[in-house]
Design goal:
This is TIGR03576 family pyridoxal phosphate-dependent enzyme. A 7-stranded mixed β-sheet has the order 2-8-7-6-5-3-4, with helices on both faces. It has a 3-stranded antiparallel β-sheet with strand order 9-10-12. Strand 5, helix 6 and strand 6 form a beta-alpha-beta unit. The chain is α/β, with parallel strands linked by helices and 378 residues long. 50% of the residues lie in helices and 13% in strands. Helix 4 packs parallel to helix 5, helix 4 packs across helix 8 and helix 12 crosses helix 16. The chain contains 16 helices and 12 strands. Bound molecules: pyridoxal-5'-phosphate. Pyridoxal-5'-phosphate (PLP) binds next to helix 4.
Length: 378
């Protein structure tokens, strides 16, 4: 294994950022194609800029955040956090009791690390499952349901509704981790918003499938939002005015047709590629770590192969994916999100040849340990 711990992941990410910096130096921003689906848009205008102060900002943006946030997620009230992970941590700390249980249902394991790590910090017994028939453990104080996984595996509305109903009957609050699901489920699968299905809380990332900044937006019951918010203030997990301003802009400008256009691009690309290791996601394509291991049959782990392929895509073609530049703990699946703003600029033909070239190049270095290491860590 080349990537053994979180320090290696940080090193890999820093190498990716260095390659991005160099490509931007050589070719400008147009030399980079961010297909992570996490565009981190930060559009502000002149009027917004004048308001980015600690107390002035919230006074102005708070009202617009409530309006745009509730329109997007439903619920009675919303609150903004530094990241989705911060919102999840604040909710777990605010709602659970130490020693009680937190059960997490998700369409496919594993969970985003923020849920189990928050449970650990809150001294809560954690259990995750993809079997929705599993009963709640004794003394459960919070039920978490993931609407769409990091790899964009989406829950069915009937399962989501059923688990929310069961938790309601048992008097246990439900938090839906709808980081990408708040848009994938509603726009592509025509599902209802989590709060409309009865969820007590739902959280989404304003960075996923919308042109907003990395930030977490939580909606739901006003009493619970207030509790989660006060916990967030204690630990500095809440979004600061510049972030809130950009979240408001992104929510106000959200246009589902950007996501629907990705469906057309995906169809075109899948038709051209015809490779069993390339699988479909709701808004793009992916190559799983297991598929890479099967394909290359080498001594490297699927994660190492994925990191190397992601680095080649970045260095040779300027394509950013999460296994190259993502945060430690993020999924190592190579996912090309065709709803990303840069996907239109690249086009299906160029994506196909970048993938084919990169997979060929990886085959050429897998027997050379030092080349593999250099590719990943620089
Ligand atoms: C992305 C994601 C998160 C965390 O989002 P951050 O903004 O990175 O904190 C949590 N859960 C799921 C399912 C996600 O996809």
């Amino acid at each position: 294994m080349l990537t053994e711990d979180i320090m290696d992941e940080v090193k890999r990410r820093e190498h990716a950022l260095e390659i991005i910096r160099k490509r931007i130096g050589d070719h400008g921003r147009s030399g980079i194609y961010d297909l992570t689906g996490l565009s981190g848009g930060f559009s502000l205008d002149e009027d917004d800029m004048a308001l980015l102060e600690t107390y002035v900002g919230p006074a102005v943006f708070e009202e617009r955040l409530q309006e745009a946030g509730v329109r997007h997620l439903g619920g009675e009230k919303v609150a903004a956090f530094n990241r989705t992970s911060s919102a999840i941590l604040a909710a777990v700390l605010a709602i659970t009791e130490p020693g009680s249980a937190l059960i997490h249902y998700l369409p496919e394991m594993p969970s985003h690390p923020s849920v189990p790590l928050s449970a650990e910090l809150a001294s809560v017994r954690y259990h995750e499952t993809d079997d929705f028939r599993e009963p709640f453990p004794e003394d459960t104080s919070l039920v978490v349901v993931t609407g769409s996984t990091m790899d964009h595996r989406v829950i069915s509305e009937s399962l989501l509704k059923d688990i929310i109903g069961r938790a309601g009957d048992a008097g246990i609050p439900v938090l839906v981790d709808d980081a990408s699901g708040a848009r994938l489920r509603t726009v592509i699968f025509n599902q209802r918003r989590a709060c409309d299905l009865g969820a007590d809380l739902a959280v989404t990332s304003t960075d996923k499938l919308m042109h907003g900044p990395r930030g977490g937006l939580m909606a739901g019951r006003a009493d619970l939002i207030d509790r989660v918010k006060s916990k967030a203030y204690q630990f500095g997990l809440e979004a600061q005015p510049p972030l809130i301003a950009a979240m408001v802009r992104a929510l106000e400008d959200f246009d589902p047709s950007d996501i629907l256009e990705a469906l057309e691009r995906k169809g075109e690309l899948l038709e051209m590629m015809d490779d069993p290791d390339i699988e479909e996601t709701p808004t793009g394509i992916m190559i799983r770590t297991e598929s890479l291991r099967r394909r290359y049959g080498s001594t490297w782990s699927g994660e190492d192969l994925s990191a190397a392929l992601a680095m080649i895509l970045l260095e040779d073609h300027g394509i950013i994916t999460i296994p190259a530049a993502g945060m430690p703990g993020a999924s190592m699946t190579i996912r090309l999100d065709l709803a990303a703003a840069d996907a239109g600029r690249l086009g299906a033909e160029a994506i196909k040849s970048a993938l084919t070239d990169s997979m060929r190049k990886l085959a050429g270095i897998i027997d050379d340990a030092s080349a593999m290491r250099r590719t990943i860590f620089g």
